[in-house]
Amino acid sequence: MTKNPDRTPLTRDFFARDVLEVAPDLLGRTLVRREPAGTIELRLTEVEAYAGEIDPGSHAFRGRTARNSTMFGPPGHTYVYFTYGMWHCLNLVCGPDGHASGVLLRAGEINVGAHLARERRISARNDKELAKGPARLATALDVDRDLNGSDLFGGPTPALSVLHGTPPPRDLVRSGPRTGVGGDGAHQPWRFWIEGDPTVSPYRAHAPRRRPSRKAT
Mind telling me which CDD domains this protein's record contains (predicted)? Predict the structure, then answer.
């Protein structure tokens, strides 16, 4: 746990930059989730950048849809999607308004409200696993599609916000291919993480789904 992280809220201008600037700069920041049951605070340790219309790995590569519309801005909002019919994933929208881009929050260390996360992540073997992976992070923070489009700056107590926290030294920031991304977007080194942090999720390359073979008759 980082001692005495800076509790100054980030500004909307922080998110109004290019996604490849915002993504690594989110490492070490404090994500705050407020809900009736209490507050959870998480130090971000792993993220991925998705550059919208120019990025084959992005949901917005083929343009705006009902599903991805919040990715087009304004910056400083959330984009929450449902995947594999089971899990939600949380992204923070960035870049200029009207141009889709966002940062997938992949992993973090829960420093406040771990008891709330444990109630939702009963399969976690220890607290380092509570938010080790994007679906686990969203589950631990009770994030679902109801929070899609939520404004990080929506009043004095928004459901989600980001504080300055304690960014890691530059020599501990690593980058590499994004997890599970295939095709033309597979090799972009747009996954960023804090080297040596135990909450960072393991890298997994894209594994194409195999169609069942048809037996000759």
Answer: AAG (cd00540)
